[in-house]
Write a structure and sequence with these properties.
globular
């Protein structure tokens, strides 16, 4: 039992915390809050963060939009651009991934070439988004008040909480709808 618990602890640590080269959502949040780590970071399909994030509800929704736009078979040269995922109360659902919680709102572009979809997710971690999404925005919504947004600032001005940008990218094979299994990132089957 102790060995199984130790293995589970290592797996959770690797997914949630990660390493400097392969950070998890807790490490990224800590780097933002403390002003450590790079101000700009690109996470690719090999990272643990991306492996978990690309199976999230928000990415599955984006993927479904891409397949729907092209009637289930995204063609080479096709794209889905300027997708905006807005962090909302649905993210407080316990099924929401830690990666989605860290990113909050993000923008995305998907391009299709050589039978593969390339996802490029862009996100800025800022004090404005942190406080607006968690405290100020909800207070304004519940009370009708108009408390101004907390300003964001450059990391060079003040490291802790300074703006940190993430680009998240990966490629996956296009599988025409009905031929794949949406649980493993293939083309989602059309709901009947």
């Amino acid at each position: 039992m102790a060995a199984a618990n130790r293995e589970l602890g290592v797996a959770i640590h690797g997914r949630v915390i990660g390493t400097g080269a392969d950070p998890g959502p807790l490490r990224l949040a800590t780097e933002w809050a403390t002003g450590t780590g790079p101000a700009n970071r690109t996470l690719t399909g090999q990272s643990t963060f991306v492996q978990n994030f690309k199976n999230s509800r928000s990415v599955n929704k984006l993927r479904s939009y891409v397949y729907d736009k092209f009637n289930g078979n995204p063609p080479d040269g096709g794209s889905y651009t300027e997708y905006g995922n807005r962090f909302d109360t649905e993210y407080f659902d316990p099924r929401t991934s830690l990666e989605e919680h860290f990113l909050g709102s993000y923008s995305a572009n998907v391009s299709i070439e050589n039978g593969e979809m390339t996802f490029v997710i862009s996100n800025k971690s800022t004090t404005t988004s942190f406080f607006y999404g968690t405290i100020v925005g909800k207070f304004n919504e519940l009370t009708g008040a108009n408390v101004p947004k907390v300003p964001s600032y450059d990391r060079q001005q003040f490291g802790p909480g300074g703006t940190m940008e993430q680009t998240i990218t990966w490629t996956e094979r296009v599988i025409p709808r009905g031929e794949g299994d949406s649980n493993n990132n293939d083309g989602p089957k059309k709901n009947k």
